[in-house]
């Protein structure tokens, strides 16, 4: 097995690990229902997707049944 010829310094170790940090997922408020959701995903309350803020345009993705919730 390979053995290091020199000890890795703290700064070199930390520079190598600088890309391992996790990013918080991006989230936004749904303009129609006001629920906090992740980007490009629908909330459980929403039935439409893809419209401007305050507008009523958009594509209806599914019918919401009251019995399912």
What does this structure look like?
- It is a single chain.
- The termini are far apart.
- The chain has a domain at 25-69.
- The model has no long low-confidence stretch (mean pLDDT 76).
- The protein has 69 residues and is α+β, with helices and mostly antiparallel strands.
- β1 and β2 (36-38) form a beta hairpin.
- The protein is rod-shaped.
- It contains 1 helix and 4 strands; from the N terminus they run αββββ.
- The strands form 2 sheets. It has a two-stranded antiparallel ribbon with strand order 1-2.
Keywords:
69 residues; alpha+beta; two-stranded antiparallel sheet; 1 helix; 4 strands; rod-shaped
In short, what is this structure?
This protein is α+β, with helices and mostly antiparallel strands and 69 residues long. It has one helix and four strands. The protein is rod-shaped.
What is this structure's SSE topology?
Layout: H1 10-16, E1 27-29, E2 36-38, E3 48-49, E4 59-60
Antiparallel strand pairs: 1-2, 3-4
What Rg, in angstroms, do the CA atoms define? 23 Å
Overall average residue pLDDT: 76
Fraction in helix: 10-25%
* Pattern of helices and strands: HEEEE
Strand order of the largest sheet: 1-2
Structural class: alpha+beta
What is the number of beta strands?
4
Strand residue content: 5-15%
Alpha plus pi helix count: 1
Distance from N terminus to C terminus (CA atoms, Å) equals 58 Å
Major sheet summary line: 2 strands, antiparallel
Give the overall shape.
Answer: rod-shaped
The parts where pLDDT drops under 50 for at least 5 residues are none
């Amino acid at each position: 097995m390979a053995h290091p010829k020199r000890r890795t310094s703290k700064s070199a170790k930390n520079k190598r690990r600088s890309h391992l940090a996790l990013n918080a997922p991006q989230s936004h408020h749904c303009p129609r229902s006001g629920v906090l959701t992740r980007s490009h995903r629908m909330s459980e309350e929403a039935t439409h997707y893809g419209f401007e803020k305050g507008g009523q345009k958009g594509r209806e993705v599914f019918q919401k049944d009251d019995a399912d919730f």
